[in-house]
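Continued from yesterday's entry.
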Amino acid sequence: MREIQASRREPFSKNDIAFTKKPSLSLMQKLEILSDSAKYDVACTSSGVERKGDKTGIGNTVSGGICHSFSADGRCISLLKVLFTNECIYDCKYCINRKSNDVKRTSFTPQEICDLTIEFYRRNYIEGLFLSSGILHNPNYTSELIYEALYKLRNEYRFQGYIHVKAIPGTDPVLVQKLGLLADRMSVNLELPTAEGLKQLAPNKHRKSILTPMRQIQNGIMSNKNELMLYQNAPRFVPAGQSTQVIVGATPESDYEIVTVAENLYQKFDLKRVFYSAFVKVNEDKSLPALPGGPPLLREHRLYQADWLLRFYGFEAKELLSEDRPNFNVLLDPKCDWALRHLELFPVEINQADYQMLLRIPGIGVKSAGRIIRARKSTRLTFEHLKKLGIVLKRALYFITCNGKMMYNTKIEEDYITRNLLSVKEKLPIDAGGITYKQLSLFDDKTFLESQSGAETLKPHQIKEFQEEIIRVS
C-alpha cells in the first residue's frame, strides 16, 4: 500500500487540494450531481452472494439478491448508486462527464460516502452501495480514495451490506486486490463491443487495459475458492463475481457481433452478467450516430433476452444469429424467432422431450421446464396440467403436443404461426413514450421511497426532515 500512497503527498483529508479547488457544495448538492451522473451505468445488480450479519455490525447480504425493487427496464433502484467523482481525465465522446464538457464538477470524500450509505441504510431506503467513478488525476489516485471509503464502511462502521464497486482500468493490481477483499461484486466496463469502436469513441481507453483487471479479478476469484476450501475463515474475494457493461448503438456493430463478444466474456472470463446499455446521445459530436428514433431501447431488450438464452437455456450465439442474418427480429423475441426458423424440430411431445429441448420451446422457461420434468414422473400431462404449471400456452401451443395431440388444429407453417404470435401482446419494458433515463431520486421521489421493502409510507414533512438532516450531516 505504501507504493500506492506514494502517488499522493499525504493521507487523505478534507483539505486535500483536489477538493478545495472546487466551489464548496453541501452534501445534498453533491448527491444530486453525482447520483444523476451515475444514471447511465446499468451494471448494478446484486444477486449471487450471501453474507449474514455477525451481530457486530449492521446490514447483511442474502443470496436471493438485496435489490428488492427494480425500474421498468430492469435497472436496480434499491442501491445507493452514485459516482465518487464526475471529474475525469478522459474525453470519451459518448460520456456526459468527459473532460471537454462544461458540467458542474464535484467529488465526494470517503467520509461522505460512509455518511450517506449508513444514513440511507438506517432508514431502510437502500440495502447496499453501487459506487462508480470518473478518473480524478489518475486511476491509482481515484481507486485509493474509493478504497478508503470502502475500508471505513467495512471496518469503522461495520457495514456488512452489499457493495458493488467499479475497478478502474490502469489501477495498480495490488489496489484492485484490496478492493476485491472489501466488495461483493466488481465490474470493469467493456464500454464498446470492439477495439475499433473503442479507438474511435474512447481514444484514451484500450482493450488491453480493460481486460487486464478483468482477468485479475477472475484469477483472484478462482484462487479464493481454493483458499476457502482449505481455510473456512479466509477473507472472501469478490464473492458475487464480476460483471461488465456494453453500450449498444454508439458504433455500427451488429447484434451478432455483440452477442458473440458476450458469449466469449462468459466463457473466457467467467462473468456473472453482461449488461447492455442503449446509447443515449448526450453530446454533440460528428462521430456519434444521429439516432432520429431515440435510444435503441427495443434492441437493448432483445439483447437481454438473447443473453438470457445464452446463460440459462443452452443456446449458442451462432444458433441465434449469423453473418448472413446479423440482427434480431424486433417484432419477435429471439426464442420465438429461432423456433420459427427450425420448424422441422416441432411439434415436440411434452411427455417425452428432454429438459434441454423443453427449454427451447417458446412459452416454457427454466422453472416451468423443471416443473414439467417433475410432474410427468407421476402422470401423463395434458394442456390443462401445463396451464397450471405456468406454461404460456398462447406461445407454446404452436410447438407442442400432449399425448400426441395439439391443443388446436394448427398449421406448422412459418407465416401462419408468425401472424398468430404477433397478435399475442408481448410484455415489453417500454411504455408508449419510451423509457425515461431519469434516475429516480432518493430525495424527491415519494413513490420510490414508499416502494422500498419494509419502508413505511412517508409524509411530505418526513421527506423534508430527512433532507434537512442530510444537510446537517454535510
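--- second protein ---
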Amino acid sequence: MDNGRKDPALVVVQLTGGNDYLNTVVPYANPLYYDYRPTVAISEEDTLRLDDQVGLHPKMAQIRDLYDEGMAAIIHGIGYANSPRSHFRSMDIWHTCEPDTLGTEGWLGRLTRELDPRKENAVTAVSMGPSMFRALSLPGVPVACVEDLDSYGLMTGISDREQRERIVERYKRLYSPAIGSGPVMDFLGQTGLDALRGAEVLKAAPERYSSSVEYADTPIGRKLKDIAQVHLAGLGARIFYADHGSFDSHSNQQGMLESLWDDLSAAIRDFFDDLREHDAADNVLMLLFSEFGRRTHDNGSGTDHGAAGAAFLIGEPVRGGQYGEYPSIRLEDLEQGDPVPSYDFRGLYTTILEDWMRVDPVPIVNGTFEKLDVLLAKN
C-alpha cells in the first residue's frame, strides 16, 4: 500500500444521542455487568466475542468481520473530564475541542482551512445532511452541505443546460453586490457563491459512479453511498461528515440498538466493499464517535446519560485491535454512576490530524495530547 500517491481522506460518522458503551463493546466476562443490567444486558451467548473479556453487540457482525481482518480499532474509555452529560454541551466539546469554554470554531473547519487555505476547492469538506455540523463550522471556510446527492444543487429540475447557466449567472450577479457591504451580508453573499460552486462540482459525482455493490435503502446507507460517489469521482474532497441515530436510549434500548447497529454495520461493510472494488480504499480512514456513553445500571428499559464511551477507527490504514483500558465498572470506581473516561478524545484527534492528515494538530485541538499508535501507514 502506497498512500503517498493519494491525498488522505477522513470520513466521520457521528453516533448522535449518546451510544451505550457497555452494550456496544460488551464486558460479557464481568458478572457486575449482568448485576447492573437485568433488563438490557446482552447475553454472553449472543455477544460477538473479540477476546476472553469483551465482545461486540450481536448486530455488529460486519464490523466484527472488519476487526478480524485487522481493519477496525476500538478505543476504550474515550471522553474528557467532568462530563456535563448534556447532549448539546457534550457535542459542542467534541466539535470544538473546548471543554472549558463555549467554542465557536469546529475542529474540522480548522482542518479544512489548513488543507485549503486559499479556498480553491468548494468541496474540500462535505457535510451529509440537511444542515452543517458544528465540527465543520468556521466563518470563511466553505463546506458543501448535501442532503441527497442525486438532487443536490440549485434548479436541478431545469433540464436545458443553457437556460440553467443563464439563471446561475443571474444568481451570481445577485449575490456579488453583497460582498463587502457589511459582515452579515458578506457572509451570506459568500455562502451563496460557495454553495453554487459546490453544487457545480458535486453534480459530476453520480454521473461518474458505477458499482456492483447494492447499499441497503437506509438513511446511513444512502449517506455512505453518496460519500463513496464523491470520493470515487476524484473531486478533491478530503473530509466527509455524516450522522446516524438517535442513540438516546432511555427506553426500548434493545430494539433501538439492534436497528441502529444493524443498519450502520451493513452500510460500513458496503462502503468499504465499494471502495475496494474501485481500488480506492487505501487512503480512507473512518471515525465513529458519540458524545458520551451511558450509565452502568439500566433504568428498567434503557440507560441514562453517562460519561466514558468507545470510539472506532476503521479502514485499511488502521492497525486493528483494542487501545486503552476498559474502564472499571466497580461501584467504588464510578463517578455519578458512570465509568470514568480514561483517554482524552483530543488525543485521538491528534493522532488523526498528525499521523493521517499531515497537519500540525496543536492549533486545531488547542494543546498537546497523547497519541495512539493505531495507524499502519503514517502519512
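The chain has two domains: 3-152+203-365, 154-193. The CA atoms of residues 37 and 254 lie 12 Å apart. Will compare against the first tomorrow.
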